[in-house]
UniProtKB/TrEMBL annotation:
Gene name per UniProt: Golim4_0
Keyword DNA-binding set for record: no
Keywords from the named record: Coiled coil
Coiled coil location: 5-60, 90-142
GO CC terms of this entry: Golgi membrane
Name of the protein described by the UniProt record: GOLI4 protein
Domain of life where this protein originates: Eukaryota
Amino acid sequence: GVFMYNHLQQKVRSAEALAQKYKQQQEALSAQLQVVYEHRSRLERSLQKERGEHKKTKEDFLVYKLEAQEALNKEKQDSMNRYGALSSQHKILKNQHEDVKKQLLDLQLQHNSLKLEHRKALETHSQKYAQLQQEKDSEVSNLQDTVFKLREESKLLRKAHQEVHSQLLNAQ
């Protein structure tokens, strides 16, 4: 009986030791599980926070993308408007350039025509001038001959007058 009692006592102690060991293991595992749960909870909160930030960042990005697209469209529209204005201004200036070229050609033709008329008028005037110069020289020459003849005649008349005067004096 004692042997049996000892044997059972030893089995109880062994079972209690084993139970104690398992209890300690359970407490250690429970503590580890608590740490894991807390870590998991922190990770979930962190994940939620990250998801929130990601969502906000995504929304901000979409807003930025939309604003950038609108700005790009506005700039594109402005550029197209400027291009249209510059294109029409270019056409106007091109037409003006063509008109000025035509005017230049007309003026050059008119200038050449006037130059030709001027040259003809100059030749005509030169001829008239030469003719008038010749007539003047001829007239001057005739007048000089007439003056020379009149002087000669005047000398002769003076001589004759002198003689008549002398004869009158002699007769008196």
